[in-house]
Amino acid sequence: QVQLQESGPGLVKPSETLSLTCTVSGGSISDYYWSWVRQPPGKGLEWIGYKHYSGRTNYNPSLKSRVTISVDTSKNQFSLKLSSVTAADTAVYYCAREREAMAYDYWGQGTLVTVSS
Amino acid sequence: DIQMTQSPSSLSASVGDRVTITCRASQGISNYLAWFRQKPGKAPKSLIYGASSLRSGVPSKFSGSGSGTDFTLTISSLQPEDIATYYCQQYSSYPYTFGQGTKLEIK
Predict the structure, then answer these.
(1) Cys-Cys link to A108, which of A26, A58, A79, A95 (CB 3.0-4.6 A)?
(2) Under an 8 A CB cutoff, do A103 and B34 touch?
(3) How many CB atoms lie within 10 A of CB A55?
């Protein structure tokens, strides 16, 4: 059974960089799209972007200038970096696995990141 | 961006009822539509992809239909464990976008 688990600081100061890691167990990190989605408290879901294990990436234009998603095949992990954060970036961040033309099949539990001084 | 509009926003139904949730896209997305549910504090669980294809392990009481701009998710016989918020998501074009969710409750 494939499992995804997010990890990282739950509190980030304004203007700093948010860094999260998603560890994939029960399956290989190859051959899929590895994605991040977030949900601000009381609001809807927002797609952040993905990185394919081949290196191809695609980011939400609203965040593109601040986002980097990377994949570490040796550790079976992928990560999210979001720079210059503000209170508006406070959200539950989910990692997810996407299969070609089949949308997300596995999600992490989600981790709350609060941006505050 | 493609806007996804779900209706209703909340729904109260009785055990055993047939429940239908609607999702409308602001432009055609063929069948690139997924449904998933989320229980409080839990990971989202994927139910359907390709508008009507059931994920492995998902009970057959869930079904999806539609193409283009209008889609539905149906639960044939509502059970207490189905209480959750249900979301649709389009993956036809970037950025992917989600419906605002339908909160399902037991009457």
Answers:
(1) A95
(2) yes
(3) 8
Q: Are B88 and B73 in contact (CB under 8 A)?
A: yes
CA-to-CA dists, residue B63 to A23, A87, B8, B53, B105, angstroms: 31, 39, 17, 8, 19
pLDDT, tens digit (0-9, with 9 covering 90-100), for B7-62: 999 999 999 999 999 999 999 999 999 999 999 888 889 999 999 999 999 999 99
Question: CA–CA separation, A9 vs B30, rounded Å?
Answer: 39
Question: How is residue B55 annotated by DSSP?
Answer: P
A53 touches chain B (CB under 8 A): no
Q: State which H helix or E strand residue A92 sits in.
A: strand A91-99
Closest chain A residue to B34, measured at CA: A103
CA–CA distance, B101 with B79 (Å, rounded to integer)? 19
